[in-house]
Amino acid sequence: MRPRSQQLRNALFRGERRTLYLGLILGGGLFWLGLLGLMLWGADYAWSFAGVGPLLMRKLLDMLLSSLFVLLTFSNVIAALSVFYLSDDLELTLSLPVSRPTFHHARAADTLVQSSWMMLLFGVPVFLAYGIVAGAGPSFFLLTLVAVGALLVMASNVGVALATVLVNVYPARRTRELMVLLGAIMLVSLFVLLRTLRPERLVDAQNFESLAAYLAELQLPSPVLFPPRWASEVMGAALTGSPTPWVELGLLLTGALASLALARWTTAWGYDGGWARAQEARAARFYRSPIFDRVVRVLPPTWRPIAAKELRVLVRDPAQWSQIFLLAGLCAIYLVSVWFLPTGSFRGQVGQVLRDGLAFLNLGMGGFVMSAIAGRFQFTALSREGKSWWVLRGAPVVPETVLRAKAAFGLVPMVVVGEVLVVGTGIVLQARWEVVVAESILTVLLAFGISGIATAMGAIWPDFSAENAARGASSPAAVFFMVVAQGLVALVLALFVVATYLLVKGWTVPALSCASVAVLSCGFAGYWPPGRAASILWSRGLS
To answer: Residue 539 is part of which domain span?
Structure first.
């Protein structure tokens, strides 16, 4: 772990990215405070329900922990595949006089940090809001630290064990099938989990015959041997001042220790065979296919070779294209959740206005998802060049053309997923067609603006030594990009809300001015940053 710590220290105090880290700390701090304020408002609203507030917060906490545990387990499987079996430094590390247990624990710690630091950082405001609103004492925060830490350890080690088993079952040349299988398991697990918890029933009192039935539903426990249930019991008891459930606390601690042993035993059994299988090369069956050149004919001639190369790389790398299955699953679950919202009580003209407002506000969700896609594909587009960067840098091509071609390639999945989320939500909520059309146009504009920011920031702070795209997508620069992208989404939504209010008041000219500023902001963000970033990147030379 020492080289990693020295690398981080040099990046913070000696590298060229000190400005980036300063901006990340400031921007991330503001975003973190805004999230804390939002969570305080939501927790206070739930706590205010007379008689059922604490029970409702317990149920919401149970849902949150269950969902995060499933997501983290899947994330750790992917991270473990990269850290344990696909890292570029494994040939050197495995040849060193380092014991296998030391190697395992160091890689397991790396997997835990890579897959969990984002959840830990942005999950803290949720737990803080719970404790502040409930007036909990120091014991709540201490037990929360223990419970959440145990969940992170269990999710990480279960992910390592599953990755080892799957790599031994599926050879490297069948990595594509492996990733599809993982995506299907993730989709089914999330859907079954959400439908089992039935969150829509908690906001519709008509589903229950009496207050007693409602309270019974709120107190319905999760499976006994489900780790998030143990964490929910421990944190819920500390939240309401009840006696500490020592059995559940003991299960968390011993479960974390047992998961450590499980992961170690699994890698001791199957690591050598799994790593040997991971060295097998896969045949590039589609490399010479003319279909790639036909797909990119809609682009300008100077963009086509770069876009075709990006498309070939996407098809040959299952870790890239398998993300499409996960995105499709998440979109389906989101639309199903919107379908079950209690909008049946929205009647008349006021109800229609509420439907239109909910549909329009889903642009925020669409912007967040498109930002995540841009961070995964467009932000890392230049960094994925790796050691072959000098070939592209020395080619007779205009710098701005390279970035714009990469941005155009990543724009397609952003627009498709964004339109499915936004337009699909509008149709499910039965919003007026004018609102749906306006949402679809704004989705394209936001995608254009976010793609420009992602490509530019990825070019200003590239990481050509990144072992895989997942590591680049979770770097501090990528987090900084997410903060900036969400700032653009918030600005556009705020301007259109103000424009709608002014239009209702009859002030047409100010309303059109606000809408024009929002459109111009998206256009500026999509056009100017790539050109500026190209000049900055090319001025650094070939080093």
So the answer is: 298-543
